[in-house]
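agent: user wants the full assembly modeled, not chains individually. Plan: 1) parse entity lines 2) check alphabet per entity 3) run joint structure prediction 4) return tokens. Steps 1-2 passed, four entities, 682 residues total. Proceeding.
--- entities ---
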Amino acid sequence: MTSDVPSPRDEPVTLAAIAARAGVHVSTVSRALTPGANGVSPATAQRIRALAAELGYQRDPAATTLRTGRSSIFGVLVPRLTDFVLARIYEGLDAAAARHGYNTFVANTTDDPALRRERLEELLARRVAGIVLGDARLDGDDLVKILARRNIPYVLVSRRLTGHLSVTTDDLLGGRLAAEHLLQLGHHCVGVAAGEPYASTGVERTTGFVRRYAEAGFPLPPEYVLPSRFDTAGGHAAGAALLDLDPRPTAIFAVNDTAAIGVIGALREHGLRPGSDVAVVGYNDIPVAADMPVPLTTVHSPMFEMGQQAMGLLIDRLHGRRVRSKRLRPHLIARDSTLGD
Amino acid sequence: MTSDVPSPRDEPVTLAAIAARAGVHVSTVSRALTPGANGVSPATAQRIRALAAELGYQRDPAATTLRTGRSSIFGVLVPRLTDFVLARIYEGLDAAAARHGYNTFVANTTDDPALRRERLEELLARRVAGIVLGDARLDGDDLVKILARRNIPYVLVSRRLTGHLSVTTDDLLGGRLAAEHLLQLGHHCVGVAAGEPYASTGVERTTGFVRRYAEAGFPLPPEYVLPSRFDTAGGHAAGAALLDLDPRPTAIFAVNDTAAIGVIGALREHGLRPGSDVAVVGYNDIPVAADMPVPLTTVHSPMFEMGQQAMGLLIDRLHGRRVRSKRLRPHLIARDSTLGD
DNA sequence: TGGTGTCGCGCAAACGTTTGTGTAACCTCG
DNA sequence: CGAGGTTACACAAACGTTTGCGCGACACCA
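--- prediction returned ---
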């Protein structure tokens, strides 16, 4: 029962407590414990640090924030963490933040404009050091305007917005890769589950795809490009609609894997098999894609790295370093959902 | 350009600012803005509240926490948010917390004892109002001991620990349901991807399953019950090992859906089809389960509700109300991965 | 040796809030 | 009408930290 943990009984271990025991002023302790130490001799600094470690001192974040007006927290806004892609990106963000001594505070916005506005205000009230926006909107995003106006450091991730710092995959290229693959397999009548119109991911993947098909001499009729929610149900609905078209598409590109699985569900309801009857291509390469009964052809994107790099850029920006947006390179992984078995 | 948002230029709107404009003392403003208002006349309270609203006042959480020693944040510890089940539970937790005016602060622990210990200390340093533990361990969990010893309000979710407040599904029953289903289909030689030995979820689902089979007169040989990680890769590995047994099991129960999909991947590598060649049962009913090329038979568990109820219990406990652990009722959903097509 | 510079540390104020205590003014009632 | 009680507010301290300022002590150099 020896206390490896500071015992709960004694008075809280604050700067003052350490100062008392060390026989110095509290301000000296504060300086000794601050990495950019100045105005304190190496000897006493060492002594104080040892004492602090021994007592298990932990800086009170509330007091620090109150005094400095800044906290060591980054706010993260995402549509929803149940989307594997965002959850994985968040892990990357958090890991990178931790490496630099920061924490992250994440909030789901469900892509609801009012809610994200509200959540942002909460984050700002907590004096976050910066904001990671995972739910940027193409339809006149007011959040980025607020951030820019108030001069809050921020970075976009996953979704792009011209004129704003971001880390994404090269979605135009990703879309082209999907198209290229299906063209090579001889598909000329294809459909797209295009995602939400306010998300650059869906829009650009679709654009890249459609352009490549147009270049190949097979422009897609508008009704073969359907907006869709990003979840399984959304993909299912879009897939069902696409399969009812005449002529029926021989291949379907869904702008994310979860929706692609929904499309596969719709195929089943039509008595069709993915790969052999209708080719299906997804996007992101989430882990389940490879292990499904019919493995999913998909465009692999480095989600964890995307998160890490976004956080890296944000921290660089915070330190006044010059930063530039990044587009990570995706690549296609062909599996049975297009190759057949 | 009229400011719907408090313009950034002016001095920050604090209690003092409101007090000055209202011609009262700051303490009066504080009391007027506190729900359990006392010692302030209804008239001035109303006047102050109107003024606060007009100025867009937001209470500074750092100052409040510093003064009161408590924040309006609940800490949430989960193994990883990329696990859909935990992400969904978290959404339930957060939604319920928001309804009561609280925020949540979530941290991934990757089931690493050292890391979760570290994360917990960070949360406690932030003076969280309570802790939700989503990664309780059966192998002598030191975190719950710390929480109990320091008298921090907490609740377990997803995983159980006898003697500690928790909200889970009835995993013993869930395991039985899976067994019952496979027995009815005539499977007598079955395998289990049992999950991590330190997680009550996997252990109890396995126990329920194994017991039912023993009762039916088909006790499982130990080598047919394999520990496994909870992710797709873990399920894949366990599945591959089970399929190499002689005699080969005609059905496999995986204690969560993600692992079940991994098992399906292993089946494919063996040239086997789920449902027709080997039956597969998962657990949780994550959304993709229903839409896979061969839809997955699984035990549905109410993840969102689990989160909501856990948070509800924690808040009740905080308010000194008597609370009891809950086990939510799961039910089996039969699909093609056991019924064939 | 005296003037100048640097170093190490103490002092005190401030961040915005909550809350116990003090104190006028008012109401009530015998 | 005066004693006792209540109401409505002001006052001030405190939470733990950071940081500009001041002041001795010491070193250095001419």
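agent: reporting back. Residues 1-9 of chain B have pLDDT under 50 and may be disordered. Chain B has three domains: 15-59, 72-168+304-327, 171-302+332-339.
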